[in-house]
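Student: Please help interpret what follows.
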Amino acid sequence: MCLIGRVLTNKTFNAFGMLETMRKVMNPPRGLTAKEIGKNLFSFQFKSVTDMQGILCREPWHFDKNVILLKELLSGEQPSTVEFNTVTFWVHLYDLPMSARTPNSIKQIGGSIGDMVEIDPASLEGVSRSIRIKEMSMNKSRREVGGDEQSNTRKVPTEGVEEVRACLEKVSVKGQPKVCGATSMAGRKE
């Protein structure tokens, strides 16, 4: 029950500080052993599968404004050979007409962005400004999938809907969600 992690940055950072911060922030009920096992390579050892899955469900994790990529270490796998080729983000879908707020429509829209993992059920209750979905990105920059590097938003082509705006959600190290930054497409300021 081990996760291998890497901070998505080319800059130097305080590895000890990152491990201490993540121990405190992750704080699984049965404890956590975190170690640096290589240059920008870390292990997070859990005492229960439930604790480990809870950490994965709360992705993405961040340190010093950089995403921490996490991957489960499989039996017989060497930590140094783990490939970090996916990252999970929460995405907000804006301007959805009521007719497109069904789980099937949202899955179609989510599928045009990346590999949709789940829909936040709370965002489906009542009428809200956006629908929140969890997406797994596979080796694609925002530019490659039609996004805007500066604003974290992109227009999503969707059958039967004039325009949907998708916005990556920023999450602080403490795990408190924040609305995406200032964008002309979403028309919102942080």
